[in-house]
Design goal:
five-stranded parallel beta sheet, seven-stranded mixed beta sheet, alpha/beta, disordered N terminus, 23 strands, 12% strand
């Protein structure tokens, strides 16, 4: 490999974080050296590139790396010996065996190794102890680092619950690189006095530092506390400790030290430091509800209560259902109970271990409060709507959101003001809602003097197909128009994003935290006042729409709610969900929020789902960073293999940002993760600056070019190959990588796509008729696609108190009017009556939600006027599943011979003066 090629490989998005791939590549080139097909210099170049990043990991460590260097030596080296050791280290990195097997740390000729030079094996203990690594940032000379590692190993005790290895670095920049590249880190010990710059001045590390926003203006004489804040921004889950030989009492009072778990006087108490590290990890390992549930299951319990299945006696003593017990195991039944005492707790009014588990989840996700939900995020969304929206309140809502939001407004009586996402008609899907449309809706309400009724902005982030909002920008510009606006972000598919430093700022809690921090900065008021001076006293609507508005930090009431389907992207059982809250006025709505919980939550919640939410939080706090990176890496591998294979790419493709996000919303110019020349700097600029970016773990695989519609291809993958995919569109399926996926999953998918591609090639080789049929099918799937219908309008009967220029309507009244069969009628879709009424009247008004799958959004809602656009779309649909549509009877419509009654508006929101009027 040439030096230029090596540098290009190191810059590729799918290579920088692929440690296992680098070791595999080294083992491969070592094999070629051993069999004489490459030379020593090529191996040395690959080893030098790998060695740089290996300094940021405990394994293989200096001793094994030096052993590899010796085998590479011109005079003493051996190609066969280098290959053997490189392969063994590569295998240990891939499997993680070095965390539990002492022999992996030995060289082939190790002989007897002093105990303090190697970590004690976890396999020798009665049970395996969890392994993690501790970053030590120290000004000590390089020659003393092995001694530092040895001294810290001597602190270990047999009583320790966990075992850790030390990764020593000597500069601010090296510490940042280690935190980014090493997912096994769980704590950082920071000694004062280390330099700013790394001793390595190489492009790959410079790029790494730049993509994580590491400032070059850190004071070289004061690096410790700036490092603390930089690490907390990148890896907020890490426990940070400062060791100082000066006035630690003053340091403890420095506001910049708030992120530290503890400060030590570095010349004393090394054992206390060791114990503090273990205690910090133990605090995250604790799962209050799950721990107590396990204890409960071990107790002898007599149940004179509901739930006969508890303790399992009705199952295991049965001749007929014993197989259920054998399948699930005894612990499931021992851990079942209807009781909320005896070490358990009540989900409806938690005061014990569930309350503590929720508080720990709030800490982990950066929220003020967290509420566990066992009925899925559909219930979470309805809880938030009921708690915060009163009848007559206006909610600015993406029409293409999950149906739970629409039903939530029906129940709460809120009036939806639908804003449209940009269409991707070629793929029968929608993107996300442009910020300009949201601002337009707010300014329309302002101009009509009805901004006080605008209660909430409700958006989906990321969307089903992976479109991610610039959440901070959306909230800031809305707050500039209405400073007390409430935000509900449905992040059902995006809960994992908190554990990626690139994606976290695009989450609701991440953006809210950034806004909170900005509000405290003196420069925030200056920025607001400067913009107000530039805008003048009465800026036009167009100026406001074209300007990136800055809110007044003195007037903001930051009220942010995030719902996430923990079961969709983390290790929670199905229906496990969370509501995350960061609301400065939550005390004012706490009572009604609890009423919403009482309304929607089951009084018999599943104990195992609650326990799995507790467990999911534990896992993500301790290893979420690495798991999310693996999920991203898996997705990049799939994109790379599909695009790079000559036969697969002939029939299949994965859409990049250039196909999913129009250019006007990609201000950075980002094209795709694997576009030629793209690196992490390009991706991060897109995630930071663009109005919309793509979630890298969600991949739209176009199958229409292979002659399959989405539903057909999904069934083929599931029935013939055992591959499950997410949603479908007319000509695509959605692939989603997550923390559960492995490289084996990728290999299976690619093999299947190749097999299908071979079959298509073979079929097309059978003659002109086959090719003609294939071409016609492609035209139908990829060209003759129906236009996507926009929301038309609510009928005037359901706009009694609506504005003249705003499209909100009383959907609740329409929904309940349809309960009276006498008030409804049906018209068949193919009937000429529909065409006649579209031309001549009377108006047709939908009586219910009509939701075709795909695309999965409501094309009609209760009270909506049926238009030609919607009818044409439905007539062209070739899907089998349309919720709310009876194919035998036709569309259900509301008869309009009577006026609809609706509730009078009674907004709970008190308007704050918009800052841009």
């Amino acid at each position: 490999m040439t030096r230029a090629a090596s540098q290009q490989t190191s810059r590729r998005i799918d290579h920088l974080y692929a440690r296992a791939d680098r070791w595999r590549d080294l083992a491969s080139v070592a094999g070629r050296w051993a069999n004489g097909t490459t030379d020593r210099d090529t191996v040395a170049s690959a080893f030098a590139e790998l060695s740089l990043q290996e300094e940021f990991h405990a394994f293989p460590g200096g001793r094994l790396m030096n052993a590899l260097r010796d085998r590479l030596d011109i005079d003493r080296g051996s190609a066969q010996a280098f290959q053997a050791l490189a392969r063994r280290i590569s295998a240990a990195v891939v499997t993680g065996d070095y965390k539990h097997d002492l022999s992996e740390w030995e060289t082939d000729d190790a002989g007897d190794v002093p105990a303090d030079l190697l970590p004690p094996t976890l396999g020798q203990a009665a049970t395996r102890r969890p392994y993690f690594e501790v970053l030590v940032v120290t000004p000590s000379p390089i020659a003393r680092l092995p001694h530092l590692v040895s001294e810290m190993r001597r602190l270990r005790r047999r009583e320790d619950e966990f075992i850790y290895e030390v990764v020593p670095v000597g500069s601010f920049e090296d510490a940042i690189c280690a935190a980014v590249l090493n997912p096994d880190l769980n704590a950082v010990l920071i000694y004062e006095g280390f330099p700013l710059r790394s001793r390595h001045d190489v492009p790959v590390l410079r790029e790494l530092l730049a993509t994580h926003g590491v400032s070059a203006d850190v004071d070289p004489e004061d690096t410790a506390l700036p490092l603390v804040n930089a690490l907390k921004r990148i890896r907020p889950e890490l426990d940070l400790y400062l060791l100082s030989d000066r006035h630690v009492e003053k340091l403890a009072g420095d506001p910049r030290a708030d992120s530290l778990r503890r400060i030590f006087y570095q010349v004393e108490e090394p054992l206390e430091m060791h114990l503090a590290v273990l205690e910090g990890v133990r605090d995250r390992v604790e799962t209050p509800f799950f721990d107590n549930l396990k204890k409960y299951a071990q107790r002898p319990i007599g149940t004179f209560h509901a739930l006969p299945i508890a303790r399992g006696k009705s199952v295991f003593r049965s001749d007929w259902i014993r197989d259920m017990g054998e399948f699930y195991g005894i612990n499931l039944f021992l851990a079942e109970s209807s009781a909320t005492t005896g070490g358990l707790d009540s989900l409806l009014e938690p005061t014990g271990n569930i309350k503590r588990a929720q508080d720990m989840a709030a800490r982990a996700f950066g929220a003020d409060q967290v509420f566990f939900v066992t009925n899925g995020t559909s219930t979470s969304n309805k809880m938030v709507h009921q708690a915060l929206v009163a009848p007559g309140d206006i909610v600015i809502l993406d029409r293409n959101c999950h149906k739970s939001h629409h039903y939530g407004l029906v129940l709460a009586g809120g009036q939806p003001l639908y804003v449209e996402a940009y269409p991707l008609a070629e793929y029968s899907m929608y993107g996300a809602v442009p910020l300009r449309s949201i601002k337009q809706a707010l300014l329309d309400l302002r101009d009509e003097g009805r901004l006080d009724r605008a209660r909430m902005v409700d958006l989906t982030n990321c969307t089903f197909d992976g479109h991610v909002y610039n959440v901070r920008r959306v909230m800031e510009e809305c707050l500039a128009i209405k400073p007390d606006m409430v935000f509900l972000w449905d992040e059902a598919w995006f809960g994992f994003a908190h554990w990626s430093p690139f994606l976290r700022p695009r989450t609701a809690m991440g953006a809210a935290s950034d806004i909170e921090q900005w509000m405290q900065e003196p420069a925030s008021v200056s920025a607001f006042e400067k913009q107000q001076a530039e805008l003048g006293s009465n800026p036009s609507r167009e100026v406001l729409l074209d300007t990136r508005l800055i809110p007044d930090p003195r007037k903001i009431r930051l009220r942010v709610y995030q719902t996430n389907s923990t079961h969709k992207s983390m290790s929670s059982l199905r229906q496990g969900s969370m509501v995350l809250v960061k609301d400065v006025d939550f005390a004012d709505v706490k009572a009604q929020f609890h009423e919403a919980v009482f309304t929607h939550a089951s009084t018999s919640p599943n104990q195992q789902i609650i326990a799995s939410l507790d467990i999911a939080r534990r896992q993500m706090e301790l290893e979420g960073y690495g798991l999310v990176w693996n999920a991203i890496q898996i997705a990049l591998d799939i994109r790379n293999e599909v695009a790079g294979h000559p036969l697969i790419s002939k029939y299949f493709s994965i859409l990049g940002a250039d196909k999913m996000v129009p250019a006007q919303y990609r201000q950075s110019g980002f094209v795709d993760f694997l576009a030629p020349g793209a690196d992490w700097g390009d991706a991060v600029r897109s995630m930071r600056d663009d109005e919309f970016c793509l979630d890298p773990t969600r991949m739209t695989l176009v199958c229409g070019t292979a002659g399959f519609d989405g539903t057909q291809f999904k069934a083929l993958l599931a029935n013939e190959y055992g591959i499950q995919v997410n949603k479908t569109s007319r000509n695509s399926v959605l692939l989603q990588s997550n923390i559960n996926n492995t490289r084996s999953d990728v290999a299976h998918l690619i093999r299947v796509l190749l097999e299908i591609s071979h079959a298509i090639d073979k079929r097309l080789g059978q003659g002109e008729a086959a090719r003609s049929d294939f071409a016609a099918n492609l035209t139908s799937l990829m060209t003759d696609v129906p236009d996507l219908p926009n929301f038309s309008r609510f009928d005037d009967a359901y706009r009694r108190d609506a504005g003249e220029n705003t499209p909100e309507g009383d959907m609740r009244s329409a929904f309940y009017r349809a309960y009276d069969a006498a008030q409804c009628e049906h018209v068949r879709l193919a009937s000429s009556e529909i065409d006649d009424r579209l031309e001549n009247g009377p108006t047709m008004v939908s009586a219910n939600f009509v939701i075709p799958y795909p695309p999965g959004f409501p094309i009609l809602v209760p009270g909506q006027v049926v238009t030609r656009e919607t009818i044409d779309f439905m007539r062209k649909l070739d899907v089998k599943e349309i919720h709310g549509y009876d194919s035998a009877r036709g569309l259900k419509l509301i008869r309009l011979h009577k006026k609809a009654a609706g509730p009078k508006p009674a907004s709970k929101a008190k308007e704050l003066a918009p800052v841009t009027t």
